[in-house]
Design a protein that fits this description.
Number of domains: 1
Helix content: 40-55%
Number of helices: 3
Shape: elongated
Order of helices and strands: HHH
Number of strands: 0
Strand content: under 5%
Radius of gyration: 13 Å
Largest sheet: none
């Protein structure tokens, strides 16, 4: 399992932003995929699909 670096931006209170656990898990999964597979999955628009890539993950990868 790949460990994803934590977010670095802070809230006005000084507290670090955190990703939702499901986003952390999805990122770990996605970062292990071949680039071609990741591109194919990023084209899926059906949010109910297990293959769907959330926008938070796409932003991290890009």
């Amino acid at each position: 399992m790949i460990v994803v670096n934590p977010l670095r931006k802070c809230k006005l209170t000084g507290e670090l932003y955190r990703r939702l656990p499901e986003i952390e898990s999805k990122l770990s999964e996605l970062l292990q995929l071949p680039e071609e597979t990741l591109v194919e999955r990023s084209l899926i628009n059906d949010k109910t699909s297990v293959q769907f890539v959330p926008i938070e993950c796409l932003v991290h990868i890009v």
